Amino acid sequence: MSPKTCTVQNPQDGQRQTIDSPHHRPGRFIGRGSILRLQNGPGKPTGLSLLESLLVLAMTAIVLSWAVPQYQSHLRRGQRQAAKLGLMQTAQWLERAAAIQGSYPTPQQIPAALLQVPGNAYLIQVQTDASAHTFALQAAPQASQTQDVCGVLTLNHLGEQGAQGASLSATECWSR
């Protein structure tokens, strides 16, 4: 194999030098630990062609078209978990208050902190009936969470869990 001549430029000091190497092909990077920009001849820098750049862009778009919806779904599931936790905590507070007072408190007596879900993705609403000793809780999705497959999550005084306007069953929504 005959030696081939290549021109390399060191980006640190900008100096060019010619290298004769039987193992080197023009347009490739050489050097150990150093960054050298090779050229295929005088004034022709190597790099990605337009077609190669478009292929990379297309592959990135394909990966993102799969990854972004998966990420958004993951975020919605996390917000749904926070709403279920908020419903359970509110129900537990109502049960403790009823054990002390003898009946469920009115919605105005419930601390506002119990009705807030972190991230404000859900709004917890309470309905109580002191004479019937019942309550019903709802976690209504807000903003981008309205696209969630589980819709409005519900919980009542019997511990019955539900999902209104959901494309999944209540069991699936509460177990996911």
What can you tell me about this protein's structure?
By secondary structure, the protein is of the alpha+beta class. It folds into two domains: 1-47, no CATH class; 79-175, 2-Layer Sandwich (Pantoate--beta-alanine Ligase, Chain: A,domain 2). It has helices spanning 50-101, 170-175; strands at residues 4-9, 16-21, 37-39, 122-129, 134-141, 152-156, 161-164. It has a four-stranded antiparallel sheet. A three-stranded antiparallel sheet has the order 2-1-3, with no helix packed on it. It is rod-shaped. 16% of the residues are buried.
What is the CATH first-level class name of the largest domain? Answer: Alpha Beta
- Average pLDDT value? 84
Radius of gyration: 32 Å
Helix content: 25-40%
> Helices and strands: which structural class?
alpha+beta
Q: Tell me the strand order in the biggest sheet.
A: 4-5-6-7
Give the number of helices.
2
Q: Rough shape?
A: rod-shaped
**Uncertain residue ranges:** 30-37
Strand content: 15-25%
Biggest sheet, open or closed, and with what strands and sense? 4 strands, antiparallel
Topology-level CATH name of the largest domain: Pantoate--beta-alanine Ligase, Chain: A,domain 2
Tell me the distance between the termini.
Answer: 65 Å
Which CATH architecture of the largest domain is right?
2-Layer Sandwich
Order of helices and strands: EEEHEEEEH
Can you count the beta strands?
Answer: 7
Total domain units: 2
